[in-house]
Structure formats: structure tokens, C-alpha cells
């Protein structure tokens, strides 16, 4: 679905993100004052909220691009639903409800008890979250691997950035289920490197991640097919919405777990990551309305390579810790290089067009002179 080019300024897209930033940082400062009663304590929590927001933004550049790639196929009504209800689910569901659900399941306590635990015993809450990191990383990493590989293992994909690699994957897509076989082989490889019961946990969690991706794909195809049968305009509706929500959840795993390295307070984490999520939403809207993905042809490629790198990092983190700054900067660097490549491509294309126009003008010039004579 072709999107109209917007004339809104860049700052206009981030208006609500700025508002949420101001409100969130004020809430963080207030929470710091109430919990410590000191200016230094208030400033510390204010700073932590800021760092968490930056962390979330750096980890989610690729998320915004992938969201925009899917949203451009959706109707305006479903785009609006995702950018309103979807962001509520992303901020409150993934940054608050999801960590509470993990603790409630892991500790075998009720959701209310999990909230009380987060408020009164943040250290114990953080310990339970960290212990749950392996299955989360296996599940989220597998889902993201399938997302990234499905983009490159596409027989109809004809635009390639790293040509030799992407052409090979595009040709390999003719082998049915090749990406699933690749992921299963990777799961078994990493499981062999993990000792004891954790190896079994990794395999089960990774298989659940694979099944979730396949189920979401099937449900999305069925829903969108039935909607299309009812009305062509409904294409890219509920199925795409579900896909984007699960995708956002997978992106959020790393940020939520990594946030505990800075603070053990669930509410500070929710404020910081919630601010970051609003910027991701603003970036998504800007990319869709300005047709940025069409103009910068390799930007999507950079985002999906970043997804694959993030997925591998999540797998590696089941063996040893990798700082979140490495994850964030790595993804941002890949997207930056893909943007630079896109700009170079556009300049070469413009130069060729000018050269052709000049050549045509030179060919027609003698003819004009003869006619004038």
C-alpha cells in the first residue's frame, strides 16, 4: 500500500515523545526523592531513567524499521490501531506486565505478590529475572532469527545489499524449510555448549520460539486471507498486528533484562524503557509517512542484519554476558552503514541520470542546429 509523503517536520513527529520524556523524567525524579529523600538520590534515578531511555532507543532502531516495513502494507485503520493500542501494549505490557509475569511464574506466586515483591524486595525480584534470562534469550533469539532469515530467504527478493551473500540466500529459498533447518542446527549447536539441565531448558525454549513464529505466520495468513476475501481493503490487518506485537516482545526481552544491570527497581525500568518506546513509535511513523524505506533502498537490509546479529547475541548470552552497549551500538552501526550505502547508491543513480541527459542533449543539439539553419 503506497503511503502519502508527509510534509511534517522531523521535530513534529517527536512531539509526543518529548512530552512523555518530560513527564517520565519528572516521575523518575519524584520517585527518587520519595525513595531516598536526597537531591543526589533524585539526580541518580533521573540519570538512570535517561540512560535506560537511550538504551531502549539504541536497541530498537531496527525495530522501528521493521515495524515501518510491515506497517506500509497495512490499511490506515490498522496502522492507527497499532500506533495507539500497540504502543500501550508495548509500554505497559512488555515493560511492566511481562517482567511481573516472568517472576510470578518462576517464583510460583500470584501477580499481586509479584508486584509486592518488586516494590519491597527489588534485589530478589532482579535475581529471579536474571535466572530466567536463559529461556527468555533462547525464545526471543529464535523468534528473531526466523524473522531475519525469512527476509533474506525469499525467492522473490531482487534488491540485494551484500550481493554475494543475499543472492545465495535468495536462491536457497527455493529449498522448502531451509531457514527452519538452519535455526534447528543452530539450536542444537548452542545446546551442546550448555551444560546440565540448562541445555534442555534452552532447547525447549528455543523450540517454543520457533513454534510461536510459525503459529503467528499461520494465524496472520489465515486472518488476512479471510479479511481479504471479505474486502480487499482489509489486507494486512489483524494478522499483521499480532505479528508486530510478538516481534516487539522479542525485541524487548534484551532491553528489559539488561535494564537490571542499572537498577533493580521495576518502576524505574518501566519509566526509562517506556520513554524509549515512545521514540521508537515516533521513528516508525516518520519512516512510514515519509517513505524513507523506499528512498533508502538498503535501510531495510541493515535492519534485518541487525536483527540477525541481535538474535545471535541473545544465544551467546546464554554462555556469557555481552554488555548491552555492544548490542545497541552494533545494531545502530549496521543501520548507519546501510544508510550510507543507500545514499551512495542514490548519488550514483543521479549521476548516471545526469550523464544520460547530457549525452542525449549533445546528440540532439546538432539536429537542432541543422533545423535552425
UniProtKB/TrEMBL annotation:
Pfam families: DUF475. The chain crosses the membrane at residues 12-33, 39-61, 82-107, 132-153, 173-194, 206-225, 237-253, 259-281, 302-320, 326-343. Keywords: Membrane, Transmembrane, Transmembrane helix. Residues 351-373 are annotated as: Disordered. The keyword Glycoprotein does not apply. It comes from the Bacteria. This is DUF475 domain-containing protein. The lineage of its organism: Bacteria, Pseudomonadati, Pseudomonadota, Alphaproteobacteria, Hyphomicrobiales.
Amino acid at each position: 500500500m503506497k503511503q502519502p509523503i508527509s510534509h511534517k517536520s522531523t521535530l513534529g513527529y517527536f512531539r509526543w515523545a518529548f512530552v512523555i520524556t518530560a513527564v517520565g523524567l519528572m516521575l523518575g525524579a519524584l520517585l527518587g526523592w520519595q525513595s531516598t529523600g536526597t537531591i543526589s538520590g533524585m539526580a541518580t534515578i533521573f540519570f538512570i531513567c535517561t540512560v535506560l531511555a537511550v538504551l531502549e532507543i539504541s536497541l530498537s532502531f531496527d525495530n522501528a524499521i521493521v515495524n515501518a516495513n510491515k506497517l506500509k502494507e497495512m490499511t490506515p485503520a490498522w496502522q492507527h490501531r497499532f500506533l495507539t493500542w500497540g504502543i500501550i501494549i508495548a509500554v505497559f505490557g512488555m515493560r511492566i506486565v511481562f517482567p511481573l509475569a516472568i517472576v510470578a511464574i518462576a517464583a510460583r506466586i500470584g501477580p499481586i505478590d509479584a508486584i509486592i515483591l518488586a516494590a519491597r524486595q527489588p534485589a530478589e525480584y532482579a535475581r529471579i529475572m536474571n535466572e530466567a534470562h536463559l529461556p527468555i534469550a533462547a525464545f526471543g533469539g529464535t523468534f528473531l532469527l526466523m524473522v531475519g532469515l525469512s527476509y533474506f530467504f525469499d525467492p522473490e527478493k531482487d534488491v540485494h545489499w551484500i550481493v554475494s551473500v543475499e543472492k545465495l540466500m535468495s536462491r536457497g529459498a527455493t529449498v522448502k524449510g531451509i531457514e527452519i533447518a538452519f535455526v534447528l542446527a543452530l539450536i542444537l549447536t548452542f545446546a551442546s555448549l550448555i551444560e546440565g539441565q540448562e541445555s534442555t531448558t534452552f532447547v525447549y525454549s528455543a523450540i517454543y520460539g520457533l513454534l510461536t513464529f510459525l503459529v503467528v505466520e499461520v494465524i496472520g495468513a489465515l486472518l488476512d486471507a479471510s479479511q481479504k476475501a471479505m474486502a480487499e481493503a482489509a489486507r494486512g490487518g489483524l494478522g499483521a498486528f499480532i505479528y508486530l506485537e510478538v516481534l516487539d516482545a522479542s525485541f524487548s526481552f534484551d532491553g528489559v533484562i539488561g535494564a537490571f544491570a542499572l537498577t533493580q527497581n521495576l518502576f524505574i525500568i518501566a519509566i526509562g524503557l517506556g520513554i524509549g518506546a515512545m521514540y521508537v513509535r515516533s521513528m516508525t511513523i516518520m519512516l512510514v509517512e515519509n517513505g524513507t524505506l523506499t528512498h533508502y533502498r538498503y535501510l531495510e537490509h541493515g535492519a534485518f542484519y541487525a536483527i540477525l546479529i541481535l538474535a545471535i547475541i541473545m544465544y551467546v548470552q546464554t554462555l556469557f554476558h555481552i554488555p548491552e552497549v555492544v548490542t545497541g551500538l552494533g545494531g545502530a552501526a549496521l543501520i548507519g552503514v546501510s544508510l550510507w550505502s543507500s545514499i551512495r547508491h542514490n548519488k550514483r543513480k543521479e549521476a548516471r541520470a545526469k550523464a544520460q541527459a547530457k549525452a542525449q542533449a549533445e546528440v540532439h543539439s546538432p539536429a537542432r542546429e541543422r533545423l535552425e539553419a
